[in-house]
Specification:
Rossmann fold; 396 residues; Alpha-Beta Plaits; single chain; binds iron/sulfur cluster; alpha/beta; two-stranded antiparallel ribbon; 10-stranded mixed beta sheet
Length: 396
C-alpha cells in the first residue's frame, strides 16, 4: 500500500519549508535507506512560466527548491542537480525561468548544478508498453542521475483538469518535443494517455509537492493563487495525485491521468488503498478550490464510461482558443508556441483558425496577459452549465 504524507506549512519561509519537507519525508519512511552519500539526485521542478514571479503560483516556489537542496546536500551528502524544460519553445525560456524563480541564485549559493533540459544532451526512449507515444526524446540527465525527485506544484489544468506529479514529467521532454506530443495527441483523452506514456519512461523515486500556495481556476498559467498550506510527499506519483486531488475536492479517478496510470498498474489511484499519514484529508481539505472552466469533463467523468467520455470531450464538447484583444500585448508568444499552426498575425492582431485549433492549451500556458480564452463548444457549455446549476461543480 503506498503512503502519502500531508504536512502543514503556512508560508514560504525557507526554514518552515525545510522542516515541513523533513517531516513529510520521515513520515513516509525509508528514504534514508534509498539515498546514499555521493548519489546524484535530480530535482525535477515544475517551471512552466519564464516571465511570472514565484508569487503567481505558476512554478515550483524557490523556497521549496532551496529546502530540498539543503536536505539532499546537507542531510544526505548527495550531489544535487536541478532541472526542467519550461512550457515555452522560445529560445532561453527555460534559462529565464531559472533566473526568474531565483533557482540560479540557489545554485550559486549551494553549488547545486542547474540542468537546462533544452540544452542538455538528449536520448531517444522507446516505450514498449506505450498507448500513444512509442518513441520520444528526453533529457539525458534523467538517465545519468541515481535518484529523481519530482517537485510539482498543485494546480488545475484546463486540458487535463489537474496538473501534478504525473504531468510534471512532461517537462523531461526538451523544448520543441513537447509540441510534437500535442500534435500526436491532440484530444484530451489521448493527451492524458500520452502523459502517462511519458511518466512511465521516467517515474520519479520520490515526489514532494509544493501545495503551500496552489493555483485554482484556469490553471496552469491563467488561474488564481490559492493558499492550501501543505507539503505532500510520496514515492507513488499516482497516489500523490489522488490525495492532492481529494484535498481540493476533485474526484481522483475522474482525472484522466490518474485513472489511466492506475489502470496501467503504474501506481495506486484509489484512495481506500492509500495510506495517508500526517494530517488527514478531511482536516486539510479545501472544498471551495475552483476547477477550470473546462471542468465539465471531470463532472461527466463521474458518471460516464471512458469510451463515451472520449467521444464527447474529444469531439462534440471540444475546446478551442480565442483571443481577448483588449488584454493582448501582441508579444506573439502564443503564435510561436501553437503546435497546430492555428494562430497567425493579421495586421498585427492574433487570429485563431478554429478549424486548425486542436484545443491543446499551449497558447493559454504561455500567455502572461490573460489574453487567451479557451471556449467550449455549445454542448460542452451546456454540460458545464448543468453541472453548475446542480451545484455539483465549483468552476471558475
Ligand atoms: S494572446 Fe497573449 S501570448 Fe498571444 S500575442 Fe497576445 S499577449 Fe502575447
Ligand atoms: S490556438 Fe492555442 S489551443 Fe489551439 S492549437 Fe494553437 S496553441 Fe493549441
Amino acid at each position: 500500500m503506498p503512503t502519502v504524507s500531508i504536512v502543514r506549512c503556512d508560508d514560504y519561509d525557507v526554514e518552515k519549508v525545510y522542516h515541513a519537507i523533513h517531516k513529510s519525508l520521515s513520515l513516509i519512511n525509508g528514504i534514508d535507506k534509498l539515498v546514499r552519500p555521493g548519489m546524484k539526485v535530480l530535482l525535477k521542478l515544475n517551471l512552466l512560466s519564464s516571465s511570472q514571479p514565484p508569487e503567481s503560483a505558476i512554478n515550483t516556489h524557490p523556497s521549496v527548491a532551496r529546502a530540498l537542496v539543503n536536505i539532499f546536500q546537507r542531510d544526505f551528502g548527495c550531489e544535487v542537480y536541478i532541472g526542467d524544460s519550461s512550457g515555452s519553445v522560445k529560445n532561453a525560456s527555460t534559462f529565464n525561468a531559472f533566473k526568474l524563480t531565483r533557482i540560479n541564485e540557489i545554485a550559486e549559493d549551494t553549488k547545486a548544478k542547474i540542468v537546462n533540459f533544452d540544452k542538455d544532451e538528449y536520448i531517444d526512449v522507446h516505450n514498449k508498453d506505450f498507448e500513444v507515444l512509442e518513441k520520444f526524446r528526453i533529457a539525458k540527465t534523467l538517465r545519468t542521475v541515481d535518484f529523481i525527485v519530482s517537485v510539482p506544484k498543485l494546480k488545475t489544468h484546463g486540458l487535463t483538469q489537474y496538473t501534478g506529479a504525473i504531468k510534471n514529467m512532461m517537462g523531461t521532454i526538451p523544448g520543441n518535443g513537447k509540441k510534437n506530443v500535442h500534435l500526436i495527441a491532440p484530444k484530451p483523452t489521448v493527451f492524458a494517455k500520452a502523459l502517462v506514456d511519458i511518466f512511465q519512461m521516467s517515474p520519479p523515486h520520490l515526489i514532494v509537492m509544493d501545495a503551500i500556495v496552489g493555483m485554482e481556476g484556469n490553471g496552469p498559467n491563467a488561474g488564481q493563487p490559492k493558499k492550501v498550506g501543505l507539503i505532500l510527499a510520496s514515492r507513488d506519483s499516482v497516489a500523490m495525485d489522488a490525495v492532492a486531488c481529494s484535498i481540493i475536492g476533485f474526484e481522483p479517478m475522474a482525472v484522466p491521468t490518474i485513472r489511466f496510470a492506475h489502470q496501467r498498474g503504474l501506481g495506486i489511484g484509489e484512495l481506500n488503498t492509500i495510506d495517508v499519514v500526517g494530517e488527514t484529508i478531511a482536516d486539510v481539505s479545501v472544498p471551495d478550490f475552483k476547477k477550470p472552466s473546462s471542468g465539465a469533463q471531470d463532472f461527466a467523468g463521474k458518471y460516464l464510461p471512458d469510451f463515451l467520455l472520449a467521444m464527447m470531450f474529444d469531439n462534440t464538447c471540444s475546446t478551442f482558443s480565442t483571443v481577448n484583444h483588449s488584454n493582448c500585448t501582441r508579444c506573439y508568444e502564443c503564435v510561436r508556441n501553437c503546435p497546430a499552426g492555428a494562430m497567425s498575425k493579421e495586421s498585427g492582431k492574433v487570429i485563431v483558425d478554429k478549424k486548425k485549433c486542436i484545443g491543446c492549451f499551449c497558447c493559454d500556458e504561455v500567455c502572461d496577459f490573460h489574453a487567451i480564452e479557451m471556449k467550449r463548444s455549445l454542448l460542452g457549455r451546456t454540460l458545464l452549465g448543468m453541472a453548475k446549476a446542480l451545484g455539483v461543480e465549483k468552476v471558475d
